[in-house]
Amino acid sequence: MKKDSKGWFIFGEIPRSMFVSPKTQSHVAIRHWADTEKPREKLLNSGPSALTDTELLAILLHTGHKSKSALDLAREVLQLAHNNLSELGRINARKLQKLRGMGSAKAVTILAAMELARRRQAGFIHKKTVIRAGSDAALFFKPLLADQYFEAFYVMFLNQANKVLHYRCISTGGMTSTVVDTRIIFREALEAQACKLLLCHNHPSGSLRPSQADIRITLKIKELGQLFDIDVLDHIIVSETGYCSLVEEGVI
């Protein structure tokens, strides 16, 4: 302990780190953690079900940022989605990249993982190739469309025995509507030698009530189908909350 020229006591140099905000201090990289706490090692030793959503997402991100670990970044991503995986599926790359440390490669990895999850949920249709009711089609389309933030219109093409030949996205649009070109639908149907069609689109708003535009386009496609001897089985509307069948509702 010393005195300065004015008689004040000096207790030695105060470490600079005491003046540094905790947020700017460097983090402890995951590679320095105990193996039992590292997400990858934890998955290998205990299986994926033992990991939290944050830990699984951190594995996808691979690395964090100079001021945060991959786990910290994963936590921020989930907070952006209100800790809801369905909501995460609705977030686009541009919004993800607003997070510090989230580059295009990391954002694309998350989007690809969410799309794989959707396709896995819908994959049963490749085994169960016969559509017996609108609910069968809803189970297929809901994982693909329910968490989209824009409207998309799909058509499923079937043969006389209701076996699925294939399906296709006919159009995508904005938050409240999309334009459907009936010529594309019937050209595709004739090329596939389809005898039946099943229509489906989503409502990003979450509402399952068919609009007047939904009803008009359904009746138009059904009427045109009669000219080609192609039957429209149903029109399904899907959202996060469930589905609506225009046939079950008595609309068509």
Molecular structure report:
The N and C termini lie far apart (91 Å). 37% of the residues lie in helices and 16% in strands. The chain contains nine helices and seven strands. Strands 4-3-5-6-7 form a five-stranded mixed beta sheet, sandwiched between helices. The chain has a two-stranded antiparallel ribbon with strand order 1-2. It is elongated. A hairpin with a 5-residue loop joins β3 (152-158) and β4. It is an alpha+beta fold and 252 residues long. The model is unreliable at 14-25 (pLDDT under 50).
Overall mean pLDDT score?
84
Number of strands: 7
Number of helices: 9
> What's the helix-strand series?
EEHHHHHHHEEHEHEE
**Termini gap:** 91 Å
Strands in their spatial order, largest beta sheet = 4-3-5-6-7
State the secondary-structure class: alpha+beta
Q: Strand count, sense and closure of the main sheet?
A: 5 strands, mixed
Radius of gyration: 27 Å
Strand content: 15-25%
Unreliable segments of 5+ consecutive residues: 14-25
Please identify the oligomeric state: single chain
The portion of residues assigned to helices is 25-40%
3D shape: elongated
In short:
37% of the residues lie in helices and 16% in strands. With 252 residues, it is of the alpha+beta class.
